[in-house]
Amino acid sequence: MNTWQNIQYKMLRSGSRVNLLIGINVFVFLLVNIAGVIDRLIFQSNFIDYYSGELLLLPSFLPRLASHFWTPFTYMFMHAGIFHILFNMLWLYWFGQIFEEYLGNKRTIGLYLLGGLTGAIFFIAAYNIFPFFAAALAGSTVVGASASVMAIIVATATLLPDYSLNLILLGPVKLKWIALFYVVIDFLSIAGPNAGGEFAHLGGALFGFVYIKQLKRGNDWIAAIAGIFKSKSKMRVVSKNSDRNDSGKPRQDEIDRILDKITESGYGSLSKQEREILSRASKDNEV
Length: 287
Hints:
- By secondary structure, the chain is mostly helical.
- It is 65% helix and 4% strand.
């Protein structure tokens, strides 16, 4: 299998929505920036840079937003530079893999999109409400997947707060401390030079936190939205109902108990049978 075939497999056939999202972000970044470099070198123009920013970034000015109504979606697949996309995609990969390991891949894209949309709402609201941003309102835009990535980071940390990642120089650090660190940094920076981005990050983080809290109560917002476009209902991973399930799928109360056990004691505390139940439930819910 050559490199291109390997990339295609990981994006489209591996089943991981994280790989698909990373692939889309990288493709858009390369497309826009390679075209921009060629435009500058050959045509000595900034046509690509100007119009990609004009048409794809999210503006805070409401009249402009009304005529660029697609930008709350497109901004979350754009990036301002190589390091911007690099760190966003690394965090998306690290936390997204953990998220999908425990909840399957059904919810990843929905969480990414809804986290990004919530970040967009926070950015637009902040710039139109707080007098501090009045002078910058007309020309301000926001760009990047950070709000979407923050939704996945905080959602994963809320689901598995005591799960640890080995960080360079720091060693094992629990997810809850990583997420809390970034939320605090974002909050302390909301009056700084990247205020719009920080508000978007906080919006994404809030959505990720609330989503997992609601999921544990049996309210799967992402599955509910997906269900609007489906005629056949799917089992929810978390529910308070304990109805008998004769289809061979794990019962709702079993999955609820296992997720609570993971939250309290970590994935390593599960028995082999409990791991099999969780794996079976995740596969039943993949789309």
